[in-house]
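Appendix C reproduces, verbatim, an entry submitted by the partner laboratory led by Prof. M.T., so that reviewers can inspect both the input and the predicted structure.
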Amino acid sequence: MSVGTPPLVNLAHSDPNSAPQDISPDTEQQATPQNASPHLVRVKRRRHQPASEDPSKNQVFYFVDSNSSSREKRAHVMRHHVQEKRKQLKHAHPRSDSDKRVHRPLRYLSWQQKKLLLNGDDNEVIEHKRSEDEITPKDFSTMPVGPQIPAPVSYSVSPVTLLDASGKDPFDSLPVTCTREDFILMDCWTNRLTYWSGEPRLIKDQVFRAVLNHPLPFQSVVLAYCARWRAQAYGFKWSPEVEQHLGRATNGIEQVMKGDMEIDTDSLAMALTGMAIQEERFGSKQHARGYVDQAVQILRSRSGSNRVAEAFLHYVQFMLMPLHPAVPEDGQQWLVTFLRGAEELMLEHSTDAYLSSVPQRRSAFQMDSPLFPLLSSGPRPSHVPHQSRIYIITKTAPTQELTRTAALIYITAALWDFQGSPSKTGRFLDHIRATVKYHELDRFPACESFVWLLLLEGYEADLQEPERSWSTNELLKLYKQLRPELQFLFSEILVSLLMLTPPIRGIDVFERELYSSMPEVQEEP
């Protein structure tokens, strides 16, 4: 939206056609201090207009404080003049019925009314003081825009104002130079992309802050990913902005590998992880595995890595689907052993002696617990409005079921780690229960956000165990290779054991059906 300079007001006189015609008594009363006598400033007419029976209709008065300086008086008159002009402009522009009902200005939809952002060329950039080694975007043609989908009020972007018109990044916080199209992509990441379960704002905000440390992860995780999602959402396999941002991300990774670009290991791991998830969803699954393997080598070989970088890697690994859905023999044995250990743990936790020392264990996973909506098999109706479902990241991948099973595995493994300490078990259960209620995941279940919180390990240091996340991922890999009916049985057994209830179809049934498929698995290439 073009933002012009407001007209100056001459305190001596003003054109009545441009000045407001009536001032409400309430406004006058608010503008006059109680402890100061009002001082009237008469705004005379510039031209001689036809005489009116009521001279007050052609004159506008503003109450000002007589004790104020001339500068303060002028500023006071200017504020009222600008307010009245805005009211006139608002009434002069037609609006939709819904906007008239709620008395709000026109909504700005970034993908429909691109011209509202700023004046000038579409590819005008906002410069940042950065080194020459950093990635800077070049001019490029925008992709064709598909059918216009109106955004809901909760997802709408704030209108451009005089404050932000001077610079979209006034504090120089972004690691790259950005065009208007880049800001649209950032808006997709921060305000629009969602799952069926709802917008994972916690995940997106923490990842966004983490990638601001270096241009390469910002380019890979935010700009390149959102460009590929945007092209896919509008039915394009490729677009100029995809070619631009993907090219910068891949070239940056190549420069790092050659030693031509300096970057810390956590930022490099996040850049590789960002490339992996976008290849998984919009490109080559084989390439996704290659990027993940490189990120694993970086973070696995060192200790003390950034918690968000490691959680992001595990989270993306949870989303990767196996290339060959065949469980190896040793993997089958590991799954059965894990279930047997969970059953042994359930029997121990069911004793009166244990429940007397950890009373919260009895009710932690029952139907009235905040954890039950997240760990049970559902159903989970979507909270995303129908008109906003274009922003769902992927409509086919079972992200809820994958993250639910990952949470079941993680919690069971944690309880096994705390087996010899009732105190640790109690504190762990109290923490995850309080965390779920704090983020309102009991009211709006989102397994994706829940498992993210588990990966961050926000509890006391003696409860943290980074190896737990790595082992959870390895078990989940085997789970994803099971047949769908065995996947359901595996997760239902874990839920029953956490509820201290013997499963209806137990581990023996799972083991028998699992091993009965071994000949078929061995025949697969």
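The mean pLDDT is 78. Additional entries are available on request from the coordinating office.
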